[in-house]
Design a protein that fits this description.
Blueprint (H helix, E strand, L loop, with lengths): L5 E9 L11 E4 L2 H4 L7 E7 L8 H22 L6 E7 L4 E8 L4 E8 L3 H5 L6 H4 L19 E7 L5 E7 L6 H17 L24 E2 L26 E7 L1 H12 L3 E2 L4 E2 L4 H20 L8 E9 L17 E9 H21 L3 H13 L18 E6 L17 E4 L8 E6 L6 E7 L1 H8 L2 H8 L8
Parallel strand pairs: 6-7, 13-15, 15-17
Antiparallel strand pairs: 1-6, 2-5, 3-8, 3-16, 4-5, 5-9, 7-8, 10-18, 11-12, 13-14, 17-18
Helix pairs in contact: 2-5, 6-7, 7-8, 7-10
């Protein structure tokens, strides 16, 4: 099946359980890390749960689940109340600037109950899962974050599949939180749903980080208004997306043994030429280097958009909470990310191989410190910019880039809402372009899933690439697509 027919049964506004109507709303000013995402799209994460065998009719069972999910979400929003608010813009007439903040007015989260004519097998069995099959299981496809002025900052869609399975699709405004914060919320919601009154939550911290106190609120030139002003018809939450046209997404599932072998291979001859000291390549650096090097090598074999002299950017989105001074707690609810970028020539990567790329990724991670974050923020404050799709002239935007997002350390498969663990984790179309690489833990302890968007011809070439397939073919290794 190439697409899903989704029927919405109900749409509900869910507010914090302790919501009291008042005009004294709490204001949370966005910092540079938050503002950078205003023109990008909502984050989308989904959990697939198999059918549970329960007494009673299916209608009674699903209705009970929907009711319980709404109630537990309402109680979770007591702790994560900014998600129930809206973005807002304040104009400063004294210096002709504006600032953007979260208005914690408890207007609510949008909660959709839907059905779809697809099954678990349609989602987990194909080598390439059509994006048109996954997209309808999420809402806010293609919606930029600045539209959080009129739309909810969180949208939840609960979809019943034809075989009784359930898909929970969550779309969250990326200007309000990052992946660490998003999974903190989902983990907390599942704990409240599973344990009702007997739960212990790690309270989120909403106080925004600023290099200098005088930087709050961030004052943007009034000319930015056209870039962050919601002007579209708000009767629909779907827009055309510049997503992965002509691309498919494929998941490479690395076992614990696969990963150990690749890490050992990467570290076998790696040295830093300047110091001649050994360095240690991490498991993730080895995995990304192995996959990305194979992509460029296969592009060359296909003569598919390969240019040995062309510049290639490799990029990691890295959590920098512990790198700041003073460090932020892991429960910091906002965006605390460092965007590491290294550039090299395509031919250089093909000639030097995956160990070379692994060492570059290691250097990128080692550079993630307070000095890098401070310099970036101070530079941004001097000349603010808010990148968007198609802005090739803006620093940090590359047309030929591999970008790794998410993390294998996020607790994805531990989200039990009372029906057991999820059997799969999926992402929506938002933020997917050529080379977008999504990292997640596998359902088996120690395994890692690497999903990447590419043309199908490149994937087929990778299947025939001996060096790439070596990671999966030797005992005791196993490989599944």
């Amino acid at each position: 099946m190439s697409s899903a027919n989704v029927h919405r049964i109900s749409i509900t506004k869910v507010r914090p359980a302790s919501y009291i109507s008042t005009e004294n709303h709490r204001r949370i000013d966005l910092n540079p890390g938050d503002l950078l995402f205003l023109r990008s799209t909502y984050m989308q994460k989904g959990l697939l749960f198999s059918k549970q065998h329960e007494e009673g009719t299916n209608d009674e069972s699903i209705n009970d689940k929907i009711s319980h999910l709404k109630t537990s979400l309402s109680h979770t929003l007591d702790n994560f109340f900014p998600l129930a608010g809206r973005l807002a813009i304040e104009k400063h007439e004294d210096d002709n600037t504006l600032s953007v903040y979260i208005n914690c007015n408890s207007e609510g989260v949008e909660f959709v109950h839907a059905t779809a004519d697809i099954s678990v097998e349609d989602i987990v069995s194909p080598t390439y899962v059509p994006q048109s099959l996954i997209d309808p299981l999420f809402s806010f496809n293609g919606v930029p974050n600045y539209e959080g002025q009129s739309y909810p900052l969180l949208f939840v869609q609960i979809t019943e599949l034809s075989d009784g399975a359930i898909f929970i699709g969550c779309s969250a405004n990326h200007s309000v939180c990052d992946g660490t914060s998003f999974w903190h919320f989902i983990n907390s919601w599942s704990e409240i749903a599973r344990s009702s009154d007997n739960h212990t939550l790690c309270a989120p911290v909403f106080e925004r980080y600023f290099i200098k106190e005088t930087d709050c609120p961030i004052r943007l030139p009034f000319s930015f208004a056209d870039k962050i002003k919601a002007v579209r018809d708000t009767t629909t939450t779907e827009v055309s997306s510049p997503g992965p046209e002509g691309l498919v997404e494929r998941c490479f599932r690395f076992t614990k043994a696969n990963i150990a072998a690749l890490k050992s291979k990467a570290n076998s001859e790696i040295i830093i030429s300047e110091t001649q000291q050994n360095i240690v390549i991490s498991s993730l650096q080895a995995l990304l280097a192995h996959v990305w090097t194979a992509v460029i090598r296969c592009r060359r074999s296909l003569n598919d958009d390969y240019d040995e002299s062309r510049e290639l950017a490799v990029s990691l989105l890295m959590n920098n909470r512990t790198k700041l001074i003073p460090p932020l707690p892991e429960t910091y609810f906002g965006n605390s990310l460092a965007w590491g970028i290294k550039t090299l020539k395509e031919g250089e990567l093909v000639n030097k191989g995956f160990r070379f790329l692994a060492s570059l990724l290691k250097e990128m991670v080692n550079s993630n410190d307070f000095e890098m974050s401070r310099n970036y923020i101070e530079s941004w404050m001097e000349k603010p910019f808010i990148p968007g799709y198609g802005d090739d002239n803006i620093p940090g935007i590359f047309s030929n880039m591999f970008l790794a997002r998410s993390s294998q350390w996020f607790n994805m498969y531990g989200n039990d809402f009372g029906w057991g663990r999820p059997i799969a984790v999926k992402t929506g179309i938002n933020g997917k372009y050529y080379g977008t690489t999504t990292v997640s833990p596998g359902p088996v302890d120690g395994s890692v899933h690497i999903e990447i968007c590419l043309p199908v011809e490149v994937f087929k070439a990778m299947e025939n690439d001996t060096e790439f397939m070596e990671a999966f073919s030797s005992r005791p290794f196993s490989f599944n697509f």
